[in-house]
Amino acid sequence: MNTLYNHSAALRHNFFAFISVCLCLYFSFHAIQGERGVLSLVAINKQVIELQAKQTDLIKVRSKLETQVSMMRPGSVNKDLLEERVRLQLGYKHSDEFTVIN
Length: 102
Hints:
single chain, mainly alpha, 77% helix
């Protein structure tokens, strides 16, 4: 009987410590592995860097296209650019030219 009493007394004394350790482990695990944990933060930061690089590439392409469009507007038509685009898009050529295909 005395042994059973000692075990239940020890259990009562250590119950708070046991629950505290379990809670600390639970929150630590989710702080690292959770949906909004450290590992998710690292993955999101990597994705942000990749998307920023893609954005800069798209900005360069857009500015190039805007420049070409501004050259094709009425009043500021660049004849060389217009001829180049007609040849590429429509396949037109002069009668004295020939096409070489590799």
